[in-house]
Amino acid sequence: MPIDPDRLRDLARLRRVRDRIDREFAQPLSVEDLARGAHVSAGHLSRRFREAYGESPYSYLMTRRIERAMTLLRRGELSVTEVCFAVGFSSLGTFSTRFTELVGVSPSRYRAEPDSGLGLIPPCMASRVGRPVRASVRNREAGGSPTP
């Protein structure tokens, strides 16, 4: 079965959007900015991105920011506020709320807790184990009702 050239172009475009998020996560990015750069509508980008990667571009961006924040907080060189701004948030309250939703503890508590033992795991595995999990996924895994 031949692969549709339009589908391949769409997947390449989505990969470029994902790569841009990975590179520019600390910059002010919106779905509209990402869509404009990919020459598609925000709705089209969101639908196709979710189909390809299982989450919206916004959710992917938030996950990248929180992953970086986790690293900076573990290092302990910056305050929570400095980390907040270093990873692209413009509001400490929003940062704390999103961090707590994805990680399960507040940024201050995460920073204060001793290393979770990830240092004993090879880095290629630690990145998967230490990746933030959305509350809806956490609830489904625990058998609870999904978060909207």
Report on this model:
This protein has 148 residues and is mainly alpha-helical. It has nine helices and no strands. The protein has helices at 5-24, 31-38, 42-53, 57-75, 80-86, 92-103, 107-112, 123-129, 135-141. It is elongated. The termini are far apart. 18% of the residues are buried. The model is unreliable at 138-142 (pLDDT under 50).
Radius of gyration: 17 Å
Strand fraction? under 5%
Average pLDDT rating: 84
**SS elements, strand count:** 0
Q: In terms of per-residue confidence, which ranges show pLDDT below 50 for 5 or more consecutive residues?
A: 138-142
Keywords:
mainly alpha, single chain, elongated, 148 residues
